[in-house]
Amino acid sequence: MKTRIIIFLIISLIILTGCTKNNKSEKSDLKMTEVKVIIDNKTYKLNLENNQTVEEFINILPQKYMMNELNGNEKYVYINESLTTNTHQYKQIEKGDVMLYGDNCIVIFYKSFETNYRYTKIGHIDNLPDLGKENIKISFEK
Predict the structure, then answer these.
(1) Which of 15, 43, 132, 137 lies 20 to 30 Å (CA to CA) from residue 70?
(2) Do 8 and 52 fall within a single domain?
(3) Cα distances (Å, whole numbers) of residue 55 to 33, 89, 91
C-alpha cells in the first residue's frame, strides 16, 4: 500500500513539474503588442502589427527622434538601421497609422488620406491628435 502511494506521489510530481515548465515556455513565447510613444510629454499607445519588421523595431527601442514634417499629414525620420520590409499598397492611410517607408524611414500619419505609395505597417496609435506643421521630438519606449 505504501509503495502505491509513493509511486502515485512521484507520478503526480512529475506531471506537475511538466505542467509548470510548459506554462513558463508559453509565457516566454508571448510577443510585445504595444509600445509607448511620447510626444510633447503626452504618452500614447502604439498597437503593433505582428511581423518581422515590428520585431526588429522593438529590438532597437528605446529611441528618441526629431521627426520632420511632410505634406501637412505626416511626420517622418530616417533611422540608422535597415529593417525587413513586406510592403503593401495601402489605398487609404488612416490617422494614427505608423508605417515603414523603404527599409529605414519611420512615418507617423496624423491625417487620413488616399495614397498610391507602398509601406510596411508597424502599427496604429489610437486618438492621435493633429501634430501640426512643425518638426517634433518623439520617443518610442518598450
Answers:
(1) 43
(2) no
(3) 10, 21, 25
Check whether residue 12 and residue 38 sit in a common domain.
no
**Tens of pLDDT, residue by residue, the chain (142 residues):** 665 555 555 555 455 445 444 443 333 334 779 999 999 999 999 999 999 999 999 999 999 999 999 999 999 999 999 999 999 999 999 999 999 999 999 999 999 999 999 999 999 999 999 999 999 999 999 9
User: Residue 105: what residue type?
Assistant: C
Question: Amino acid identity, residue 126?
Answer: D
CB 60 within 8 A of CB 142: no
The range of the structural domain enclosing residue 38 comes to 34-141
Under 8 Å between Cβ of 45 and 34: yes
Instruction: Give this prediction's pTM.
Output: 0.78
CA angle at residue 133 from 129 to 135, to 5 degrees? 95
* φ, ψ dihedrals at 43, nearest 5°: -100, 130
Secondary structure in 3-state letters for 54-67: HHHHHHCCCEEEEE
Q: How far apart are CA 93 and CA 36, in angstroms?
A: 21
